[in-house]
Amino acid sequence: MSDLKVRRELLNGPKNSLKMNSSGVKGLIRQSLEAKSFAYCPYSKFRVGAALLTRDGTVFTGCNVENACYNLGICAERTAISKAVSEGYRDFKAIAIASDLCEQFISPCGGCRQFMREFGASWDVYLSKPDGSYVEMTVEELLPGSFGPDDLKMKKVHSLPYEF
């Protein structure tokens, strides 16, 4: 069996499975923990790593990158997603997020939740701690009642009536 096929089965579970098996989740979390080590965060000292799994089994990692002009920084989740999109991927299965927080699971910021939502609401998000423990959610659970690409296709009023 090829290395790629073994990796896909480990990450994806049995063929056509929508859920990852336990070792696949742990592997994705491990990759997010490793990505955290590359974080550039001289101002906040808050390291974050992410590992994004595409439907075909490819993994893209990302870390947060801060900037002296604070609002120009980019989060780990958006880094991983941007790397994937820049390589032609748009269909994601899961993302694992890691930080140095020991007492609570890391959670993506509002901007990252909306960024993830752009690519669907039903894919998995694994919020982890440094010890590898995690909670599983979906993008929809992180951002209920969200606004997405399909909302832009809905009928709109293009002029306002003079009176209500």
Order of helices and strands: HHEEHEHEEH
| Largest β sheet strand count, sense and barrel closure | 5 strands, mixed
- Give the number of DSSP strands: 5
The N- and C-terminal alpha carbons lie at a distance of 68 Å
Low-confidence stretches: 1-17
Side-by-side strand order of the widest sheet: 2-1-3-4-5
- Nearest-integer average pLDDT: 89
SS strand fraction: 15-25%
Instruction: Work out the helix count.
Output: 5
User: What is the SS-derived class?
Assistant: alpha+beta
Radius of gyration, in angstroms, nearest whole number: 18 Å
Shape: globular
Helix content: 25-40%
Keywords for this entry:
29% helix, alpha+beta, 18% strand
Explain what this protein looks like in three dimensions.
It holds the Pfam family dCMP_cyt_deam_1. One of its GO terms (cellular component) is cytosol. It catalyses: cytidine + H2O + H(+) = uridine + NH4(+); 2'-deoxycytidine + H2O + H(+) = 2'-deoxyuridine + NH4(+). With 164 residues, the chain is an alpha+beta fold. Helices cover 29% and strands 18% of the residues. It is built from five helices and five strands, in the order ααββαβαββα. It has a five-stranded mixed beta sheet. Residues 1-17 have low confidence and may be disordered.
Layout: helices, strands, pairs:
Blueprint lengths: L2 H10 L9 H15 L11 E7 L4 E5 L12 H11 L5 E8 L10 H8 L6 E5 L5 E5 H4 L22
Parallel strand pairs: 3-4
Antiparallel strand pairs: 1-2, 1-3, 4-5
Helix pairs in contact: 1-2
Pfam family, one: dCMP_cyt_deam_1
Family: Belongs to the cytidine and deoxycytidylate deaminase family.
Catalytic activity: cytidine + H2O + H(+) = uridine + NH4(+); 2'-deoxycytidine + H2O + H(+) = 2'-deoxyuridine + NH4(+)
